Amino acid sequence: MCPVRTGAAAGEAPHRVAWHDGTVTAPLTPPHRPNPHDPWQTPPSGSHLAPAYGSPDDPDTATELRQAVVVLALVALAGIALGLLWLWLAPRVPLVSDGSAVFLKNSEGEEAIGADGTFVLLAAVFGVLSAAAVSWRLRRGGVLVVVGLALGGVLGSLLAWRVGVWLGPSSDVVARAREVGKGVVFDAPLELHAVVVAVLVWPFVALAVHVLLTAAFGVREPEPELLGAGWTSYYGEPGPGGHGGPDVPPGGPGGPPAGGPGGS
Fold this sequence. Notes:
Radius of gyration: 39 Å
Oligomer: single chain
Mean pLDDT: 74
Low-confidence stretches: 50-55, 226-235
């Protein structure tokens, strides 16, 4: 039965309001069922909170900071070994004095460039080794450990450069020429010409290798479990009944439920 508008003027026939008059609208959600998209709706019975991500074995910030400091110190100290290897493997630049000036014995030699190339190759090897050691020992290390690895590579390269210069041939070429005498060949001091590039090789290689090893062998987070049968079936995923989404009354979203008023 359609509703009747009350308050009609005397002598007028009661006016029946049609469903399409715009004054009467059917509710989109039956009154006895809550709106499934209401963010404040109480979750259905049987639901539970999603498990927290992460693992109990993950280090906290203080532990990770200590690990980062240890990594930085050990990687930086490894620069001493890099400096000793550079001093041992780098080619020497021969010099000779005529008594009044010092000249290159071989003006077309590439020994100076070879010293830079030796340092770069050794720094790249140390970058791979340090990244592999950190990835293997601290598989759950976070951002702070990676930062410690990068800073340690920079400090290690600087330390290696200075160790090679300090322990290498004397930087006072004039005094050395006077000491050896006229026409005697002696070694030029060990130098890096591309200091910035050579110093950054170790940290960049270490970061790249660490990212690759973490992607290939890093610890994987466990997949979160389902939020429970109540939530999955309530919000559209297949539930125990084999269908998704909230139940819809037989009369459609805007119709009355079966067996209710007007259902006959």
